[in-house]
TrEMBL record:
This is DNA-binding protein. It comes from the Bacteria. The keyword DNA-binding applies. Pfam families: YjbR. PANTHER family: CYTOPLASMIC PROTEIN, CYTOPLASMIC PROTEIN-RELATED. Signal peptide: none annotated. One of its GO terms (molecular function) is DNA binding. Keywords: DNA-binding.
């Protein structure tokens, strides 16, 4: 997955915006103000921090050592840093981004979740 593909995929989710609250290099993808992906699209290797169910986070780290690690500068229980350099299948990366988005949406107040469901 290229940086452009990662950015486009993150922005494809309903009500998602890209923000740069830390510096001009760090893209923060948010849904209704809540972070679900954080990356430096110019970074080499390309990595992205993604929210993850704690049990899944441990399993993924064991299955993909060195490619999925505890979230850099994040809560290590709930966040993973995923290396997006081609070693992991693009399908898995897309699933992890989507899972992160879904977890964040699930934590939103009911009224905001309902607002996302409207066309």
């Amino acid at each position: 997955m290229t940086p452009q593909q990662l950015r486009a995929f993150c922005l494809s989710f309903n009500a998602t915006v890209e923000d740069f609250p830390f510096n001009p290099e760090t893209s923060v993808f948010k849904v209704l103000g809540k972070l679900f992906a954080l990356t430096n699209l110019d970074g080499r290797p390309l990595t992205v921090n993604l929210k993850c169910d704690p049990d899944d986070a441990i399993r993924l780290r064991e299955q993909h050592p060195g490619l999925i690690v505890p979230g850099y500068h994040m809560n290590k229980r709930h966040w993973n840093t995923v290396t997006v350099d081609g070693e992991l299948p693009d399908r898995l990366v897309r699933e992890l981004v989507e899972d992160s988005y879904d977890l964040v949406v699930a934590g939103l107040p009911r009224a905001e979740r309902l607002r996302l469901d409207r066309p």
